[in-house]
Amino acid sequence: MAGFCFWLVILIFIIFSVRKGRKSSNHSEQPPVHPQRPERKSASPHRSYSSQSHAEKPRTSAGRKNYGSGKSSTVAKTTGNERKNKEARKQREADLQAVFDENQIPYELYSDVKANPTIANVQNGVAAYKASGADFIVALGGGSSIDTAKGIGIVVNNPDFADVKSLEGVADTKHKAVPTFALPTTAGTAAEVTINYVIIDEDARKKMVCVDPNDIPAVAIVDPELMYSMPKGLTAATGMDALTHAIESYITPGAWAMSDMFELKAIEMIAQNLKAAVDNGKDTVAREAMSQAQYIAGMGFSNVGLGIVHSMAHPLGAFYDTPHGVANALLLPYVMEYNAESPAAPKYIHIAKAMGVNTDGMTEAEGVKAAIEAVKALSLSIGIPQKLHEINVKEEDIPALAVAAFNDVCTGGNPRPTSVAEIEVLYRKAF
Length: 431
Hints:
Helix content is 46%, strand content 9%. It is of the alpha/beta class. It folds into two domains: 2-224, Rossmann fold; 231-430, Up-down Bundle (Dehydroquinate synthase-like, alpha domain). Strands 2-3-1-4-6-9 form a six-stranded mixed sheet, sandwiched between helices. Strand 7 (196-201) and strand 8 form a beta hairpin. The longest helix is centred in the N-terminal third of the chain and has 23 residues, at 80-102. The protein is globular and about 65 Å long. It starts with a helix and ends with a helix.
């Protein structure tokens, strides 16, 4: 595990205001959003928004205030690279803050966020946002920070969901989230473009998958330079997370021509560039390709859904705080083999081809095998753990993990109908 978790994921987002003491916006004027074709509003300095709390506590001058502990969670021991990674994170934070300071834009810093964010992280963020008088959010970091920003933005403008638990699944929110600018620093989650976010309910010991077109950031700035300092382990894990997104949404029953186009291209780009990005984090071509590939994969799965790789990965995050990318990467080949016995089997040969395999003359069965072996080969080449016991999963927890996975919102998107018993078999096979 140490190779994958020493990076303190950049879990910071910045809240700031460009209007002072204004009245709240009229949410009723916002047009409805179709779940498959979410509207995107252009966020501009000339158009800002506020919640009711903004009028209660106007800002009077530019400046900054810190909220939260500023702590991140890891599941690995401290390594020599951790200090360098912290320094890189702080430098990015400082660079962003300098832009606000130089332009006299008041802002407040909120960093009470952890890898695998919790309900408390969201609720504390909501309180901080309301106290700040801010108009919008800038989320700088990986999927955890962006997911937290999504949850905060939704609850601020939809206070009926203040418990956060009621957001699980497809929540009937009425208003778009607080306008959010997302700056991803990892290449994997595509949180900056999807309708999904994931929050841990610590009391229930589960990850809540929240699906809501109202949560999509207003602006996504995908800049590979923000990803250059990712260590090898994080680059590998997040890259395999993106590959999982692409493969799962390619074979889900909801897939169609447009999503297939996105996902096959994403698979191709990841296969061609992930190892290079892992081997040399300063490979600008590989970094840019991976930043684009994960975004493309996100555009696909946000419209058609995922499968039980994600269903099985989510409980690992809830039980053990396992990094999501690591969990997905490890489980993907096992689930692909399982799903080969489904109507999706004919698509595997196209996955193999996108992975760079010469599929000329292959039968369907040969294509299935080639696709799975290609994924395994890529996984091994970048040092992904191959067994659950390597990442400290406890065998005695497998029955509970299987129940949680079966009840996950992603299970319905799997191409092969499944059961608790079959998922338990898969966990044991991967153990």
